[in-house]
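Dear Dr. H.,

I hope your travels went smoothly. While you were away I took the liberty of generating a structure for the chain from your last submission, since the lab meeting agenda had it listed for discussion. I wanted you to have the full record in hand beforehand rather than looking at slides cold. The sequence, exactly as received, is reproduced here:
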Amino acid sequence: MILASLSKFILEFFGWSIIGQPPTNEKYVIIIAPHTSNWDFFIFILMKFTFQLKVVFIGKHTIFIGPVGWLLRKMGGLPVDRSRAHNVVDTIVDEFNKRENMIFALSPEGTRSYLPNWKSGFYHIARKANIPVQSAFLNMTNKTIGWGPLFELSDDKYSDLERMKQFYQDKKGFKPEKFSKIVFLSSKS
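The corresponding predicted structure, in token form, is as follows:
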């Protein structure tokens, strides 16, 4: 409770307003966007603590070293070696199937650098685990952070992603020029 109050105080002290509440679902994927700076991570960690969420997230294995690695693991981090071919989607889906409660968070942009499109792993995890996708955002335009819609996925990938795209289209990160848009599916195939 103290950590939650302190985290909320820090966000408010630096001028951030929190919008909405996380869902009460036992399992879901949180997509966090835009992800254009290292500051995004710290802002979202403060939001995680504010709402006292036990969140699982992945990160580059190279940052999980020493005391920082220990701390990241304590906060729910799982290291991933992106230089090797492995199926992260199935690994995360297996974790969802093993647990009664699980919240998995990731940035669909996958990097702080600009990419022309989002990575699709979050969508495939949610579909295979049969769970919804919760949108979370930050917006530097008005220094808000919070929760958007909870997306129940359909059999129409294009429609699902179009709804997400509509929600995120006006959000601005710390470096707006680096915000990748949702365009990884371009047709109704």
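Two observations you may find useful: The chain has one domain: 2-52+83-173. The chain has a mean pLDDT of 84.

With kind regards,
E. W.
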